[in-house]
């Protein structure tokens, strides 16, 4: 194998692989990536067993051939190269990497022992890549990193009348985002950690979805990905969304986020970072109390609804997370002090968070 | 006590204190800072027992009084405040912090139990604060963070014909920097960790030094600091600086740093990150070899001296550290393959690093 490729193209591809391929493993092959040189260029692929990734780097190839090398090492080397062009050549069982006045010779691995990664050609649905990234990115926080039940560590995709919805929940809160999608939608649950990587890989352009046995494949102009899916029954989250609310409040999302951050400094970390919300007469009062003292903040809000006042408490961290994806005006919708509350952008846009209230 | 101060001034002062005062301690008083309100403003002071710090914040004060509050908590609160002015008031044993629509009430501590911090008025020497910061900042890396002997974890100040010198060594390398200073110079050793904080506190203007019993005090326009000094005999580092060199090399510091970083990717971490330097015929060749392969790089250099060639090896990390403070052209001076080598800016400026060569 002999190939010439620009440093920029090669290091971009490698940096994507580096995000997925683990840097340490009891099986060294799993820390490797496979380079498949064809007449069009180099296909770089690797896996962390939860997610397979393939990236294509256009290159001038003289002798098509496949090989396996340590992923992070190659990425690190290519990043430090001084020249603009990189020459790759398989010499015996070593990959020579040459650029400018530098030459590296890296031991290659057993290409036949590398796991077979198959990326399907079939397309079941298409979606704007940036829309999908925004939707996934704005609900991902609500998935748990610790929950015993696997589904709480995932993000669910489901069908809606107008396209699709992604939703995540850790049992104390729900975040969901509706978005447009062309084609078939299948119910499935993606692991949140794979979702993080998927969000990073998605840019502009179109993402093509393909549903396989226990796996979702996503193809963009730059990359192909297979995500292993989670098994299990996602909780009936719609049950906790209040269908009727009695008091609505509007204010700038950033103002509320800052205020919650401020009073949360004194909130009791051992009592769920409890912050009390009191809405009355066009004012939102926030109170927190902990070992070191008390905090109080007052904000002007646009208040609507049939109830004149409401008082309830939330985990400050959860309120800040819920407000995270909301730019501009935020709307809070309250039913009762003991019922979950809705946080969403006043201007719409498909995102909604539902927070369980802390006990009074 | 009642005081009004701008958020900017107060939070700048608190953020300095926050760097020194520990956030956790078995003695809660040590995580506190003392506020002394006088007619001119607020003096904020705290200690980590190795370093005392005092910062002054001009303020409008109505009832001068002293109090003690958790340092990190107050700093965090003031940082999140929405208003431009902050009102502080001691109400019973609570400090009320008010700004915009926010009010915080923080428990205060026992002011009589807080350690007495004394900052001397006497001035023994003056130095340009930026010069001192540059000198300390460029040698600090050579101090050890682990060495059993305390002096290897410090930076020494000593007298030179033209001013002063700071020097650090971990036994494998030496870094020194000469700078101008007016007044008396005493030999003393500052703990490297206090040096880090001192460098961060120094800005433009003048730094006034005062030598005390086992302590160095540094006063600038913004802050007063006492540094507890280290006891012990600093090694005779001048012994390892080669007095005569036979081969000199000049090249851009950044070029060499990049090249060393490049070949070091394959250097053996278990063999001191060994990188071999071979100078001959106006070329510097770098070689490294490890478990994963071999790296080779060639650089053009300006070569001088009586020897036609030299070959020796260094710890790649140490070479990069030594080059860190060198901007523009770097000069390397070699005596023999087994002797230490000198790294310094070709343009002078007071900095020099000496590296022990690894065995062949």
UniProtKB/TrEMBL annotation, chains A, B:
<dbReference type="InterPro" id="IPR046938">
    <property type="entry name" value="DNA_clamp_sf"/>
</dbReference>
<keyword id="KW-0548">Nucleotidyltransferase</keyword>
<dbReference type="Pfam" id="PF00712">
    <property type="entry name" value="DNA_pol3_beta"/>
</dbReference>
<dbReference type="GO" id="GO:0009360">
    <property type="term" value="C:DNA polymerase III complex"/>
</dbReference>
<dbReference type="InterPro" id="IPR022634">
    <property type="entry name" value="DNA_polIII_beta_N"/>
</dbReference>
<keyword id="KW-0808">Transferase</keyword>
<comment type="similarity">
    <text>Belongs to the beta sliding clamp family.</text>
</comment>
<feature type="domain" description="DNA polymerase III beta sliding clamp central">
    <location>
        <begin position="127"/>
        <end position="236"/>
    </location>
</feature>
<keyword id="KW-0239">DNA-directed DNA polymerase</keyword>
<dbReference type="GO" id="GO:0003887">
    <property type="term" value="F:DNA-directed DNA polymerase activity"/>
</dbReference>
<dbReference type="GO" id="GO:0006271">
    <property type="term" value="P:DNA strand elongation involved in DNA replication"/>
</dbReference>
<dbReference type="Pfam" id="PF02767">
    <property type="entry name" value="DNA_pol3_beta_2"/>
</dbReference>
<dbReference type="GO" id="GO:0008408">
    <property type="term" value="F:3'-5' exonuclease activity"/>
</dbReference>
<comment type="function">
    <text>Confers DNA tethering and processivity to DNA polymerases and other proteins. Acts as a clamp, forming a ring around DNA (a reaction catalyzed by the clamp-loading complex) which diffuses in an ATP-independent manner freely and bidirectionally along dsDNA. Initially characterized for its ability to contact the catalytic subunit of DNA polymerase III (Pol III), a complex, multichain enzyme responsible for most of the replicative synthesis in bacteria; Pol III exhibits 3'-5' exonuclease proofreading activity.</text>
</comment>
<keyword id="KW-0238">DNA-binding</keyword>
<keyword id="KW-0235">DNA replication</keyword>
<dbReference type="Pfam" id="PF02768">
    <property type="entry name" value="DNA_pol3_beta_3"/>
</dbReference>
<comment type="subunit">
    <text>Forms a ring-shaped head-to-tail homodimer around DNA.</text>
</comment>
<dbReference type="GO" id="GO:0003677">
    <property type="term" value="F:DNA binding"/>
</dbReference>
<dbReference type="GO" id="GO:0005737">
    <property type="term" value="C:cytoplasm"/>
</dbReference>
<feature type="domain" description="DNA polymerase III beta sliding clamp C-terminal">
    <location>
        <begin position="239"/>
        <end position="347"/>
    </location>
</feature>
<dbReference type="InterPro" id="IPR022637">
    <property type="entry name" value="DNA_polIII_beta_cen"/>
</dbReference>
<feature type="domain" description="DNA polymerase III beta sliding clamp N-terminal">
    <location>
        <begin position="1"/>
        <end position="117"/>
    </location>
</feature>
<dbReference type="InterPro" id="IPR022635">
    <property type="entry name" value="DNA_polIII_beta_C"/>
</dbReference>
<dbReference type="InterPro" id="IPR001001">
    <property type="entry name" value="DNA_polIII_beta"/>
</dbReference>
<protein>
    <recommendedName>
        <fullName>Beta sliding clamp</fullName>
    </recommendedName>
</protein>
<keyword id="KW-0963">Cytoplasm</keyword>
